[in-house]
């Protein structure tokens, strides 16, 4: 067993004038270290394409996650979904990336643009084995994973971008590969890489996509633990035990909350130095304690982090804010979304008297809900989460 993990991110935009996307991505986990990712592109666009791609990705991902062979998955798809009576062509194309124990990647491709693999910041020309299953030409590849490997799967909306406009014959796959190599060197997350690729395609379409466009990026990286202390314990006698457990954990340490930082400083025997620089007027400034990586205010800051997390899982329109800003919420977001893979929450249940003011929109239940919602968002990002209450 190795200490690698998969960072997975994707984004889609709809064909202009359509409410539904004709592309669909399904991600099914097989235990902690194996994952099936399917990108399906339904024929045409709109409702019909959406139904076809959703069925295709659901059927394939569920069957492969259950351990059934590729041939059975493809033949089931062929028997289940219709062929277009008008054009007589495939109901849906698909790309499958099967991560096995974070050691092997199996890539299975049918009629989608071929997956781009970036290794050592260069495009890697991986071997492909051609197979014929049910009269369909399928390409299969098996690669041993390395830290830093990046896989870029896409629907044909990506190479069609700019067709007849900026590019006579669309955005060539090799040019997309060069574009992605430059971005990978910037150290972005898989979600941000997929967002930037789809945003560029949208620009090439003149913000009026002529096809459903989807990109899914998988980035292989080492596990990185992170620890967050949020709120004092309900029983003061538990403070030392809470601090001992928190600071004994490997990885970076983030302390959130005024009272919490005072307890942490006392435990470490170090002073709290508060910054007077307001990077953003609505986010309280950070502080410093020797031995702690980041010290911030509590509920207001974490509420903004939750807002960024929800956007990150959706349209990801705010990534330029938290990626570059230096306020506390942006700094926590970068640590949690980009760096961390395993996040340990140490949450105190003490009720803050300041939060009992009826004029303030903060109370104990909101704080607990905040932790639960943020944990759920981080799990959706593929993070391993552990929450301990005191």
Can you describe what's shown?
It is a single chain. The protein contains ten helices and 18 strands. It is α+β, with helices and mostly antiparallel strands. The longest helix is centred in the first third of the chain and has 20 residues. The model has no long low-confidence stretch (mean pLDDT 90).
Structure described in brief:
By secondary structure, the chain is of the alpha+beta class. It has helices spanning 46-65, 70-80, 173-184, 190-204, 239-248, 258-268, 299-313, 319-324, 328-339, 364-380, and strands spanning 4-13, 23-30, 34-42, 92-100, 104-110, 116-119, 122-123, 129-133, 136-144, 150-154, 213-222, 225-230, 252-256, 273-274, 287-288, 294-296, 342-347, 384-389.
């Amino acid at each position: 067993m190795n200490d690698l993990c998969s960072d997975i991110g994707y984004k889609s935009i709809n064909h202009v004038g359509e409410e539904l996307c004709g592309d669909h991505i399904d991600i099914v986990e097989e235990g902690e270290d194996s994952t099936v990712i399917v990108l399906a592109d339904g024929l045409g666009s709109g409702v019909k394409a959406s139904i076809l791609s959703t069925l295709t990705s659901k059927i394939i991902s569920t069957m492969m996650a259950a351990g059934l062979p590729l041939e059975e998955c493809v033949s089931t798809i062929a028997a289940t979904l219709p062929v277009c009576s008008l054009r007589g062509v495939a109901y849906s194309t698909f790309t499958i990336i099967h991560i096995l124990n974070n050691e092997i990647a199996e890539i299975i491709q049918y009629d989608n643009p071929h997956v781009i693999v970036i290794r050592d910041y260069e495009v890697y020309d991986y071997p492909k084995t051609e197979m014929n299953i049910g009269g369909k030409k399928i390409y299969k590849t098996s690669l041993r994973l390395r830290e830093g490997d990046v896989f870029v799967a896409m629907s044909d909306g990506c190479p069609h971008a700019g067709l007849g406009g900026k590019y006579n014959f669309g955005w060539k796959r090799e040019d997309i590969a060069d574009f992605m190599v430059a971005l990978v060197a910037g150290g972005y997350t898989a979600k941000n890489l997929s967002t930037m690729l789809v945003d560029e395609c949208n620009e090439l379409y003149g913000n009026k996509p002529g096809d459903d466009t989807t990109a899914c990026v998988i980035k292989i990286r080492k596990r990185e633990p992170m620890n967050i202390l949020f709120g004092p314990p309900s029983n003061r006698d538990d403070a030392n035990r809470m601090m001992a457990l928190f600071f004994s954990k490997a990885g970076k340490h983030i302390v959130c909350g005024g009272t919490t930082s005072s307890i942490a400083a006392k435990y470490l025997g170090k002073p709290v130095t508060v910054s007077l620089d307001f990077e953003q007027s609505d986010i309280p400034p950070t502080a410093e304690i020797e031995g702690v990586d980041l010290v911030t205010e509590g509920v207001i800051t974490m509420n903004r982090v939750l807002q960024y997390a929800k956007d990150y899982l959706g349209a990801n329109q705010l990534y330029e804010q938290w990626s570059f800003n230096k306020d506390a919420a942006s700094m926590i977001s970068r640590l949690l979304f980009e760096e961390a893979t395993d996040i340990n929450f140490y949450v105190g249940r003490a009720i803050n008297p300041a939060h009992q003011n009826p004029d303030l929109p903060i109370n104990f239940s909101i704080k607990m809900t905040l932790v639960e919602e943020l944990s759920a968002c981080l799990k959706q990002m593929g993070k391993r989460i552990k929450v301990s209450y005191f």
